Amino acid sequence: MAIATIADMIIQPHKFAEYTIKRTTEKSKLVRSGVATSDERISRLINGTPKGGHLIQLPYFKPLEGEDEVFGEYELEPEGIGTGSEYATILVRQKAWGDTDLAQVYGGADPMAAIGNLTSDWWIIREQAVMQSTLKGVFGDALSAHILDVSGEVTDNYIDVDTTLDAKNLMGDAYDKLGLVFMHSATYTQLQKQQQITTEYDSDLKIEISYYLGYMVIVDDGMPVLGGIYDTYFLGKGCFARDDGMLQGLVGYEIDRNKLGAENYLINRRCLIIHPRGISFNPLATFGTQANGKPRKYARNVDLANPENWTLAEDLKNIPMVCLRHKLHSSKTTPVTEYLKALTVASAAGAASGTTKVTITEDKLEESNTYVYKVGKRLSTPLINEICNEDAGYTAWDGTVDIESAKGSKILIVEVDASGKAKAAGVSAVTVKE
Q1: Which end of the chain is more exposed for a tag (fewer CB within 10 A), N or C?
Q2: Bridge partner list, 376
């Protein structure tokens, strides 16, 4: 049977572009964590911008200020609600793929969906690079007050729980807005050695998601590193605006063919903003020249990483972004001597409908230890000595009785000491008696 090519496929450009953007949004950790949010009004601003335009203006309301007034003392004097605006630069990015680039998906039942998945995965990586460049730029000057630099300290100059909490404290009582962390793979590995990384399995997307102290983790080796000093970024919900649109006169998706070379091309263009809220892009910024000598119209990642292109527009406390500048370890670091042991957990159908029979291969670490469990679709093992009791959502288990569960769930078994501290844990998919 002949292999299909791009030219053989019946592709509806609008639906393909819509699918790619939708799938990219669904799989993006930036969106799933709540760090990047969308607003249809911003998309309409992008759509209303003519080809060649690269700026849109984003209005915002300033926080309400002033003291309350005691009733009856005098006539109320209403105060106005302050407003402001900031500039965001429109990013216009494009990519072309040939038949050979996409050959691996042609034989599937739905090659168009497969190609859409491939392109969405590619765009997710590129969006992370955009955000990483933007963060490098804004922390260069505009957000310099939100940098905790411990790299010059004699001992506590590395990333750990203490320095992370100190960095979080730069947000004051707005610390709870933080929800995601960008880090270098070397930093990630160091935190794994400290037993500070936990993982959860997302059964919908079929991927594992890592967390550090409750912050969703994105690992990116494009993070700034200089002389053994690393930057780690902690970001809050809604701190970035992420919206797609299409400039007037620009085509987002098309197929082209090189007849002489018998090659087909799939071309995908996106017009989007990934903009840090509360910070304004320099409307006078220039982006260098193209190969033909003409001025470049749209920002590159290197332009986003330029601190001169960013200025503070709102109060610092309203911008949930923090940078921890650190080394990986210190000569005075106390070694970790206790680790969470692994339990081999197995599940079989229970005696009654809706139950599962769980067995554990290993003996208890201490005879006085007991077991607790959780059932769900997204479970992560606790940290060593983490309290696992009823208040933490666990249920006591005697090690033998069948456990109520549901098809498609997972079960987490934790061995705890007399104080409820986790000493060993394991996770298994559940088999349920139907």
Answers
A1: N
A2: 410
CA distances to 5, 6, 220 from 258, in Å: 13, 12, 36
The two three-digit tokens of residue 183, written as one number: 């880090």
C-beta separation of 306 from 168 below 8 A: no
Q: How many residues does the chain have?
A: 434
Please spell the DSSP secondary structure of 333-347, one letter per residue: PPPP---PEE--EEE
| Nearest Cα to Cα of residue 212 among 189, 239, 228, 237 | 189
DSSP 135-201: HHHHTTTTTGGGEEE-TTSSSS-B-SHHHHHHHHGGGGGGGGGEEEEEE-HHHHHHHHHTT-EEEEE
Query: pLDDT by residue (tens digit) across 36-88?
Result: 888 888 888 888 887 778 888 887 666 666 677 777 666 767 766 666 678 99
> Which is it for the CA torsion 190, 193, 195, 198, positive or negative?
positive
Residue pLDDT, tens place only, 95-127: 887 655 555 544 444 555 566 667 778 888 888
How far, CA to CA in Å, does 299 sit from each of 120, 304, 309?
21, 7, 10
Q: Give 179's contacts (C-beta < 8 A, 6+ positions apart).
A: 33, 34, 35, 215, 216, 235, 236, 237
Q: What's the sign of the alpha-carbon dihedral 330, 333, 337, 343?
A: negative
Measured between alpha carbons, how far is 93 from 250 in angstroms, rounded to an integer? 12
The DSSP code sequence of 380-391 is -PPPTT-B-SGG
Can you tell me the distance from the alpha carbon of 298 to that of 247, in angstroms, rounded to the nearest whole number? 12
**Can you say whether the dihedral through the CA atoms of 37, 39, 44, 46 is positive or negative?**
negative
CA distances, 1 to each of 4, 254, 296, 416 (Å): 9, 27, 46, 60
Separation CA 386–CA 115 (nearest Å): 44
* Distant-in-sequence, close-in-space partners of 168: CB < 8 Å, separation ≥ 6: 175, 178, 234, 322
Q: Which long-range contacts (CB under 8 A, 24 or more apart) does 396-400 make?
A: 396/370, 396/371, 396/372, 397/358, 397/370, 397/371, 397/372, 397/373, 398/371, 399/360, 399/371
**Percentages helix, strand, coil for the chain, rounded to the nearest 5?**
25, 35, 40
